[in-house]
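Much of what follows relies on a compact textual record of a protein's fold. A record is reproduced here so that you can trace the correspondence yourselves:

. . .
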Amino acid sequence: PVIYPRRKRDDVGTIIVVRDTSGSIDKPLCDEFSAQVTAMCADLNCSAIVLDCDTKVHAEYRIDPGSECPLKVIGGGGTDFRAAFDCVRRMIDDGESIAGMIYLTDLDGAFPDEPADYPVLWAAYGTRATAPFGRTIHVK
C-alpha cells in the first residue's frame, strides 16, 4: 500500500468565537476581532459561529471558510461572560457539535461560576489578567 499526502486539512468542527462588544472595546479593536475570525476560518478551513456579547448575546453569525466576518458589532454595555456560555450550552443541548470556544475580550467582566466542559481559549487584548478557567493568551 502507498500513503499519499493530503492537501485537505482535517475537519476541525464548529468553533464558537465570541466578540466582546462591551463599552470598553473600541471600534479598531472590534475590527481586529473580525479580521482574526475571517483569517482563522480561512487558515483552519473551519466554520465558526460568531456571537456578539456584552451583558447579553446581541447577534449570532455563521461564518464558513472563505467568507468574511461582519465588521458591524452590536453591543456597548457592560461585560458578563456568562451570557455567551449560557447561549453555547443551549446550542449544545439542541444538538450543535462544538469543538471549542475562543473569547476575544479585555477580560473585564463577570465569569461563570463553573468552567465549561469544552475547550476555551481567552484571547486577552490589552491586559495581563488571566481567566479563571481555560487557556489565556495575551495579545498586544
